[in-house]
Amino acid sequence: MRIRLQDINAQNLPYMPEILAAMGRVIQGGRFILGPEVEALEQSIAEYSGCAHAVGVASGTDALVLTLSAAGVRPGDEVITTSFTYVATAQAITHLGAKPRFVDIDPQTWCIDPAQVERAVTRRTRAILPVHLFGQMADMEPLRWLAERRGLAVIEDAAQAIGATQNGRGLASLGDMSCLSFYPTKNLGGAGDGGMILTNSAALAEKLRLLRVHGRADGYFYLLDGFNSRLDELQAAFLRVKLTGLPAYTAARQANATLYNDLLADVPFIQRPTLAPGNTHVWHQYSIVAEDRDGLREHLKTRGIDSAIFYPLPLHQQSIYRKYHRGRLPVSEHVASSILALPIAPEIVGADEVQAVASAVQEFYKQT
Questions:
Q1: Residue 82 in contact with residue 139, Cβ under 8 Å?
Q2: What are residue 93's phi and psi, to 5 degrees?
Q3: Binning pLDDT at 50, 70 and 90, where does residue 367 land?
Q4: CA distance 335 to 16
Q5: For 142-189, how does the pLDDT look when each residue is reduced to its tens digit (9 = 90+)?
Q6: Residue 78 to residues 68, 93, 153: CA-CA distances in angstroms?
Q7: CATH fold of 8-243, please?
Q8: Which of 100, 248, 308, 334 has minimal CB crowding within 10 Å?
């Protein structure tokens, strides 16, 4: 029996009648860019996330670029962020001509370490960009306090964390703006690229709506030097259908994670993911830090179990970003060398499959 890490078709097929009907509605209507489907999705995502405004854009990466631009990040500015993240986090900074200032992560949550952020602030710092890694919010209170004291923007990379909360507060409630991705493998995955920005600021929402359409107001009059980043109607219709199942889908991921944590509690040589107090985790990934990670991965493969490494090399060690950082970030480097994602998606994995994966992990370490 093979246990796959993901199966996009298995996730989408249960919704196919509703998806086809929704897409047919868009095609018959003949409006494909920023129409009623996008507006309805924006309203639904804002309500789901507990924030005032949502602005649909073309991708999660674009969401990061537009939020940084809206926050006033310009060439020569610095943005403090984590090195242990997907490359889009840093690319959004450098594409605006700014400089990423990488800091290390918390050894338990693997999210950005607020103490390191405070030490990294300089007179050129414009914003802080925490990443809600694998579906759990970073420790936002000290970041918010620091930002208010130093006059900085806080932009949340929540590409993996739709539905996550911290002390009862959702995305964009502790930062100025929060960025979602609808890449097909995300918890709410589309039929291609798509993204959304959440904010509680009406002024920022209006600015973002201008930025996503070249900075254009009515007609051919331009108020900002903007971008072309529009969520299309077909994607919005697709996502509106899948959003109806997201609460149950998230609950199933959480049940799988809880079972993994129970079954792996006494396994030596691994660190299970830590759920920080007050956090609601949506488990985009279930990753462990494992001694002899590559050996474990090969062992799982022989048992027909897929796994993946997110992420094998921290950004400060990537060739394109070495110029921005000198020295080591030891926690990021250790986690990157040892991390392994196990199957958790509920369209693939239930209690029996979680048990099989956990048993294979236990078997490997009994042999060592």
A1: no
A2: -70, -50
A3: confident
A4: 39
A5: 999 999 999 999 999 999 999 999 999 999 999 999 999 999 999 999
A6: 11, 8, 11
A7: Aspartate Aminotransferase; domain 2 (3.40.640)
A8: 248
Give the closest residue to 296 by CA, choosing from 262, 260, 268. 268
Question: Could you tell me if 128 and 152 are in contact, meaning their C-beta atoms sit under 8 angstroms apart?
Answer: yes
User: In the sheet that 78-82 helps form, which strands lie side by side, from edge to edge?
Assistant: 53-57, 195-199, 177-181, 153-157, 125-129, 78-82, 99-103
| H/E run at residue 339 | strand 339-342
Question: What is the C-alpha to C-alpha distance for residues 309 and 38, in angstroms, rounded to an integer?
Answer: 34
Mark residue 215 as left, alpha or beta (left: phi above 0; alpha: psi -120 to 50; beta: remaining). Answer: left
How far is residue 7's CA from residue 77's CA, in Å, rounded to a whole number?
Answer: 41
Q: Is 192 left (phi over 0), alpha (psi -120 to 50) or beta?
A: left
**C-alpha 15 chain-centroid distance:** 23
Domain residue ranges in the chain: 8-243, 246-367
Cα 223 to chain centroid distance, Å, stands at 31
Give the whole-angstrom CA distance, residue 330 versus residue 50: 36
Tell me if domain 8-243 and domain 246-367 are identical in fold. no
Q: Could you tell me the pLDDT band of residue 206, with boundaries at 50, 70 and 90?
A: very high
CATH of domain 246-367: 3.90.1150.10
- 3-class SS at 340? strand
- All residues at 6 or more sequence positions from 133 whose CB lies less than 8 Å from its CB, including other chains: 82, 84, 85, 105, 109, 110, 111, 160
